[in-house]
Design goal:
single chain, alpha+beta, Ribosomal Protein S5, domain 2, four-stranded mixed beta sheet, 4 helices, disordered N terminus
Length: 139
Amino acid sequence: MTSSTANAGAAEEGQEPTRRIGARLPRSARIRRTREIRRVFRDGRRLRGSLVDLYMAASERPGARVCVIVPRFGRSAVARNRVRRRLMEIARREWLPMARRSRLHVDLILKARPGAYGRSYEALRDALRDRFEALCSAS
C-alpha cells in the first residue's frame, strides 16, 4: 500500500491523514551570504575540535544564526551531504534552543573536519553539546 493509499484509507475511516511534517532550520536562523561568513571567520573566535571547528562572532542581527560548512576532503557528495544534514539538525535541535535561552546574538559556523565523516549523529551531537554549553555560559 502506498502512502497516498494509506492516507486515503485514513480519511475514509474519519481519521486525519498522516502528513510528514519536516522541521527545518528557519531562514532567519541561517547565515546565507558569503560576506557574513567571511566576517565570522575574520572577526570571530575559533574553537578547534577533532570532528568540528566552531567559529563564533557577535551577530549584526538579533538572535542566533548558524552556518554549516563541509569541505570535500576527497569524499563523495553523498557523504558530504550526510555530514551537512547531521550538523544542521544538531544545530537546530541543540544550539539554537540554548542560544535563545541564553539570549545570545551570535553567528556560529560549524566547519566539519575529516574525522566527522563516518561518525554517527549521536557521536557528532555528543562532541558538540559540551562546546555549545560552554559557548552559552561564557557569552
